[in-house]
Amino acid sequence: MRKLLFESLTRAPLTEAPPDMELADIAALATTLGDVARRRLGRSLSIREIDAGSCNGCELEIHALANAFYDLERFGLRFVASPRHADVLLVTGPVTRNMREALERTYNATPSPKWVVSVGDCAADGGCFAGSYAVVGGVSAVVPVDLHIAGCPPSPETLLKALVALIGHVSQGARAP
Amino acid sequence: MQSMIKAMAGTPPHAHHPWPRRIVDADTWSALAAQLAEGRWTLAGLWGDAGAVHMALLDMSRGESQGELAVASLPCPTGQFPSVARRHPPAHRLERTIADLFGLEPVGAPDDRPWLDHGRWRVGHPLGITTETSGEGAPYAFLTAEGEGLHRIGVGPVHAGIIEPGHFRFTANGETVVRLEERLGYTHKGVESLMAGASLERAARLAGRISGDSTVAYSIAFARAAEAALGIEIPARAHWLRALMAELERIANHVGDIGAACNDAAFALMHAHTAVLRERVLRQSSACFGHRLMMDKVVPGGVAIDLDRAGAEGIRSLMATIRQAFPPLIELFDNTASLQDRTVGAGILSHALAHQYGCGGYVGRASGRAFDTRRDLAYPPYDSLRFDVPLFQEGDVNARLWVRIREVEQSLGLIDQLLEGMPSGDISVAIGHGPETREGIALVEGFRGDILCWLRLDPTGIVERCHLRDPSWFQWPVLEAAIEGNIVADFPLCNKSFNCSYSGHDL
């Protein structure tokens, strides 16, 4: 263990530069998030992840955000264990009928102000599972969605861009008069 | 094999490849269930169909690498069939699922509670004769455990981490777990109903999204079943590219989960390092095949994308990186007493249960069940590659992690051979459809264990019925046994060492 720890002292960190933000991304997010969101969230976001019936592909990429390359926490973003501690709910999956109530209850357990970010193509409208007897079809059919991140699954880079854009706007908004 | 087919005295139906299917009567069905209970065969699958039930049996009596599979089908004109679970408990949840989805009743089944149907679908028996339901949900009677000082802890379906939804009901005496009961089905998406009537292309996309972490293995299973049904031979290069993707998927999941399990034992350093290795594998997969998880890259007829020279070089250098970085991590794992204090002796799964349930993957191989589809029902290109099937006997968390460590090493060796011997040529062939109804079956080794795919195509090539059985079906139930007598706080660690799929199980 000592050797591994010493090595990490001498080696350059793996963590990569913050993602290059294209203006289009930011513009899209700015319209998605109201000024209220920007003022209230400050520079940090507590995120509660909810799998509402995904194939677990999105979960794998959300997990990857914590690895040394993306290091989500340096941007003030962190995952929390309880909806009571969360500002943002990150919801994946086409929302199965069996998960609908659990999603509603988690949403209701999250204190306001709160924002919902839906992740992955099936979270938009059910994706390839739309039309099934077991699927409600899209997160917005159950709780109000503030931002959608597309992809099947979205790459960690896409996720990071969207979340950093969110927090970037938050801080811009906070500085605004 | 002959003996298994003899035991299935009955008539062969539609063209069914590569293993036989026989239509049997109720007596033969019950006799097969009794032989399952005796341990003569292993249950490889049990699923419903329009007015019939099917049971896939695995015969390993001829020894290592000589496995055989066969399917017995029982028509159920009265909507009933003799329960297999009455004699052979591994069939329990499968029969409850058949009752939920098809409305076929297993007569004599010891447990008649619904399983995937939580009363929320607004439809009863969605794949059989449908009925309208309120969709308001139905209460679920958990099994009881009674005694002085016992208390219950309910966990889920929304968990504290970034994991899939499921409910765990613990009954504990102080810290010690007396009984764990799982309730699953929260991620049920109705995949089998979406598959019915779908084109082969759409069904293949769905198959790749049954369990995202095993998307390559699922796609291979579906493609192989389709190719078997249609009698298509795919180019050798396609077989080899599929195996390359499958081994990359195996390494990515194994290294990631080894670290994640250590993290559940509060040893975060391992997690940090293995997460880096996992990320490197995914990045290389994306560079070579255009998708980090390689979704939709295996298709019926072959593969969707070829590997170029730069891609092969990239994988070679990735292999070198892992060979350099992985051994010191394993040394660390092996030499950290505080970690072993958690993993050794925790969550022991007995040999008897591993064999009875036919537990696949590292769960079975850590408890003395030496079964690996790549060797025992070998499919190309594994029939021409050299590799070992690591086997451990202890059955604890530690053994399950060691199986995965050894499998990473085997996969590295397999990838060397795959890059070295990769045949040139085409990567896919066109697929047509048969002039009549065709059926195919495939068993494929995913990182978690053997995935079964059974498929019936109509004369126009449309999917009539497709059933995909995740290895988790035979792993989730024994987790309940493995956790007994452990402390509640060790459950996350034990659960992670099983690492069953919720989505793959719930369908």
UniProtKB/TrEMBL annotation, chain B:
Matching InterPro entries: ComplexI_49kDa-like, NADH_Q_OxRdtase_suD, NADH_quin_OxRdtase_su_C/D-like, NADH_UbQ_OxRdtase_30kDa_su, Ni-dep_hyd_lsu, NiFe-Hase_large
Tagged with keyword Secreted: no
Pfam families: Complex1_30kDa (PF00329), Complex1_49kDa (PF00346), NiFeSe_Hases (PF00374)
NADH-quinone oxidoreductase subunit D domain span: 276-429
GO molecular function, one term: nickel cation binding
Residues reported in the UniProt entry to bind Mg(2+): E192, L468
Key word Phosphoprotein present: no
Residue ranges crossing the lipid bilayer per the database entry: none
Residue span(s) of domain NADH:ubiquinone oxidoreductase 30kDa subunit: 72-128
Domain of life: Bacteria
Keywords from the UniProt entry: Magnesium, Metal-binding, NAD, Oxidoreductase
Protein name from the UniProt record: Formate hydrogenlyase subunit 5
Organism, as annotated: Sphingobium indicum BiD32
